[in-house]
Amino acid sequence: xxSCSKSDSDTPAVSIVGKWQFTQEGTLVNNQEVLTPxxxxxxxxxxxxxxxxxxxLKDHYYNTSCNESIDTGVWSKTExxxxxxxxxNTVVNGQxxxxxxxxxxxxxxxxxxxNIVILTRI
Length: 122
Fold this sequence. Notes:
Layout: E1 18-29, E2 32-37, E3 48-51, E4 56-62, E5 68-78, E6 81-86, E7 91-99, E8 103-110, E9 113-121
Antiparallel strand pairs: 1-2, 1-3, 1-9, 3-4, 4-5, 5-6, 6-7, 7-8, 8-9
């Protein structure tokens, strides 16, 4: 039987590849998200991360003197899992809660604390 309706597989997946600016961060308290605006250094370029198509990752941070530091690593994404291994061997395993053309929301556990980070595509 032929059908004219589109299936979910016809919808292209949103790519995580690109530059994403940190916009909010927080944690879970009693299963409720508690988010605050991400604090960028005033007067400087805003902190952001780059997911490169090669699988490389670059986190760009600017201190109060507007000097840039870059943390590098590699990333992989499978369904709603985001795994990052930094060059110092720090491993972050996150769960993607939202991925759209404009928003990336990730939950990860660090030292037993559940953290949430929201980024906006730039």
